[in-house]
Amino acid sequence: MRRLFLNLGLLAVLLASCQAVDLNAPIPTFETGIDPNTWAQVPAGEFYFGQHEDIESTDAYEIMVTDVTVSQYADFLNAALADGTVKMDGEKIVSFYPGDEYNGTKHEEKIEAGDWLFIPLDEPSQRIKFDGTTFSSQEGYANHPMTSVTWFGAWGYCKYYDARLPTEIEWEKAARGTDERPFPWGDEILRENANFYSSRDPFEDMSSFGSRTTPVGFYNGQNYDGYQTIDSASPYGLYDMAGNVWQWTGDVYEGMHYRFMRGGSKDTYDMDLRVWVRNNATPTYFSPGVGFRCVR
Amino acid sequence: MQFIKDRFNYLFGSTKGLILVAIAMIGIVTATWGMLSGPMAEMGVREVVIKLLGMEIVQSEREGRIIILYHSIAMAVIAIETYMITGLLKMKEFFKTAINAIITVGYILTMIFGMGFAYFGHNWAFHGIYIFGLSLIFLAGVMLIIALWPWSKEYYVTDNQYAHTKKGVDLERVAFFTTAVTTVLSSLFGAVPGSYYGHGFETFLAENVIRYPEKTVMEYSVIGHLHIMLALIGIMLTLIIGRWLNFKGAWHKAAMPLMILGCIVLNLGVWGVVTTLEPVAHMVIYVGATPSMLAALFLLIWDWNKLIKDGTAHLAKPTILQKLGALVHDPLKFGPTWQMLFMNFTTSGIGIFMAIKLDEIFRVWPAREERIELTGHWHALSAIIATIILLYYGDMLGLKGKIRQLYGWSILILSDIALAAVTIFEMKRLFITEAEQQPLVNGLMYAIDFGLGMLLVLLATVMVWRLIDLFKPKGRWTEEAAQYLSQEVMK
Prior knowledge:
The complex is a heterodimer. Chain A is of the alpha+beta class. Chain A has one domain (19-291): paralog of FGE (formylglycine-generating enzyme), CATH 3.90.1580. In chain A, strands 14-13-12-15 form a four-stranded mixed beta sheet, covered by helices on one side. A three-stranded antiparallel beta sheet of chain A has the order 5-6-7. Chain A contains four helices and 15 strands. Chain B is 75% helix and 0% strand. Chain B is globular, with a radius of gyration of 23 Å. Chain B starts with a helix and ends in an 11-residue tail after the last helix. Classes of the chains: A alpha+beta, B mainly alpha. The interface between A and B is large, with 55 and 35 residues.
């Protein structure tokens, strides 16, 4: 009898593991009051860069206060498709990229001039919808960060608005300011600071779809139907510089085709939310946990 | 006073006592620090443990803390292997006593003061004692090399069942000697960069720099060090298990030269990583790993064959089922080699698959995915090594009957459930997308947590039993104090 119970228990776990995930499960809607069209000023000067606090410096620049939202990206696609900057290739949005210098380094792959994937429309977790003429955001996701976007798609968006992706140095300065803090808001991390793995925010259900993105600027000290957040802006007033989605950065390094991401995401443990932590992937990679913001 | 003296003499003066102390130390560290990560962190247990124990966790020092944690556990494992070697192999009594004493002081200082430095504020005197502890272990390693010198005539063998040269040099002893020499030399590949900390060399975890095309010599040295040390712990344990099981005959004669050759070539490959040979170093490593793994396979074949023969000796014509029954009759004898085989599914096989499909599959994924595979890979290998040690320890304890079956099969089934789940977790991106993975991840996590958690409960039960036993005037410990591993080698 005991063996039967054990086998049934194991079977139950296995069946639970195989259940389908509803990627379009209802999502709470909250207005954060943070305008994704605002930009923050970062002054020129030195700051502590990296885990070992090397001194680096930047010129002055402006950076978006939030990640680019689904709504903003839909607007971009509508404009860019109309003027021919991007085009449809089946279920894919593609556009021209001038290519990278190839050095033949071990594991390096050629990124040649040509059309490259911006976003896939047939990706089940894609929050941009296309009705044949117009792009729009999936209901409930308009103010969420744009995800399932490749590095090319992020690069193309910023370029379209005369901006660019931040370098890793610019990104880190914007997140950290000029002191030695490991997180944009300070030294310690609590669940109410950011959206990370199992942070128990109202958008998460670890028993089914797991972690989902939170609206941009969600962690601003506001109370959302009883869920109290902590204001977790960076020293320059940026939101979501830790958690929610990894953010593509713009550096193209010699001998590497990989592009780097910063900030950790809804799917990573808090250790990956430290400002110096790097992640990277091929520029064609896209995921529901990767987004971006621009600088100018 | 005599009460304490007798127990102290057992715990620190006998091989079985020393092994018990080291296993208990590893168990305490694993159980305590295991609560700082994985599911315990999500459940909020981490914060409670940090507050309760008064740990000082600085975010930027995480990597450094982890490196000291790994070293603390690894040094205790190396001490256990050393106790087994001094207990199993012939050597001068002076060396046995001196090596055991030095390595015991070494690993205990390393563990207590290393962890004290890493997690409880930066008392630099603690760091100094931690380094002193590591140095003592190095010294014990050098003494072990001297003690193992295989070309002393007193260690020559004449029995034709064991691999030896025409002159009588014991090739198994040469294999032990080679592994000890290369272990001591390979430790320097960690020690040299370690001595540059604070002088331009910065802490890093190898899995975080894996994709950077340019690495410094020091970084290569650390990466080589961590790979070869784990491999050498595995090779040494294979030799130990072979000695415990009394590996002999044709398979032994074929295995030992391969073991020696594989160990040398493997080390040359890893050392080559920090030289201009770096571009071909991986090929040399593959060449070296092949004979080592082949030697382990020969041990497995011999062991399983022996278990079947011994278990069916009373039957004239045993059926396949009877043979299978004989093979798995004693989990403590069958287990170590089974775990070596299972390792090929969880570690070696995955490693080879990753190497073949690296650019095509794994390097297309984000680096964090690759990090999961890499850390899972060597955690699985470490766990397998730990279970093999525990299986041998179960035999040392003299477990019999149902308790022996329960202990042995619990270790095998629980660890293999956990490791199989770890392997699927590592490879999950091959068959499920990020957006759809959560139910699968949950199921795998239950399996991993159940397997490892219950394994720790089993270990805790054994440790409590041994603790209670120590309070008995005529407990099992009194017998163990006078027992020698060399006398318990299988007939």
